[in-house]
Amino acid sequence: MLELTDIDAFYGNSRALQGINLMVGSGEFLSVLGRNGVGKTTLMRSILGLMDRVTGRLSLDGTDISGLRTHQRAKAGIAYVPQGRGILPRFTVRENLTLGTFAAKSANGIEEWVLELFPVLKDFLNRYGGNLSGGQQQQLAIARALLAQPKVILLDEPTEGIQPNIVEQIEDVIVKLNREHGITVVLVEQNVAFARRASHRFALLEKGRVVAKGAIGELTEDLIQLHMAV
Ligand SMILES: Nc1ncnc2c1ncn2[C@@H]1O[C@H](COP(=O)(O)OP(=O)(O)OP(=O)(O)O)[C@@H](O)[C@H]1O
Ligand SMILES: [Mg+2]
């Protein structure tokens, strides 16, 4: 279980998150929704320990991890698929995947089940990451995160800017990770239809605060109009 209590996060002196309280149960799927610039990525970065300064308490399975460095949080079981994917373009697919394995608690190398989720990666192991399409890079970013053997995976707009034919494939894998592999998912998403299909719970952000949260069935059209329409 991942729990955020009274989290504030700062870029220098500017406060980007204010009083965030959120809980994601083990095996749950939470979607974080909201317009551009409301703090969704900042929330992911705060969970990972990538911000200049965060106050409040963050716990994983009852243990306070607020004081841990990013690599320790990764070892504790939190993996991150960043917005924009963060693939190293001059590293091969294999090398990008190997980076993920370094964050795993027990070194298992590039596990077969992960490659089987994304067969295209298997074919392209020796290609440079930078030569893959956007959709393939996204699949690589997810695979890399899975090789860290996470309990919780944070996915920041994983289908943003991806060709439609690959979007559905990526969405199906994300649902499968949760339902079949029991991985807890925190998904940042602008696509409400996918959030509804995939999630158990939602949180809506506005100006760095949670303005609504609950079971996904409570995500009404009114809330979407109010907090997501542009
Ligand atoms: N590196 C930074 N330095 C200073 N301010 C930042 C930085 N990154 C983001 N911000 C500010 O923090 C706020 C939240 O940004 P954030 O990137 O978390 O939003 P977001 O919800 O992820 O947006 P998007 O949907 O466009 O990805 C915004 O006001 C943004 O301008
Ligand atoms: Mg963002």
TrEMBL record:
Keywords of the record: Amino-acid transport, ATP-binding, Nucleotide-binding, Transport
Gene Ontology molecular functions: ATP binding; ATP hydrolysis activity; branched-chain amino acid transmembrane transporter activity
Reply yes or no: does the keyword Transport apply.
Answer: yes
The UniProt record lists the ABC transporter domain at: 2-230
GO process terms (BP): L-amino acid transport
One Pfam family recorded for the sequence: ABC_tran
Q: Does the keyword DNA-binding apply?
A: no
> Per the similarity annotation, which family is this?
Belongs to the ABC transporter superfamily.
NCBIfam families according to UniProt: urea_trans_UrtE
Q: What does this protein do?
A: Involved in beta-(1-->2)glucan export. Transmembrane domains (TMD) form a pore in the inner membrane and the ATP-binding domain (NBD) is responsible for energy generation.
Entry protein name: Urea ABC transporter ATP-binding subunit UrtE
Q: Please name the source species.
A: Bradyrhizobium macuxiense
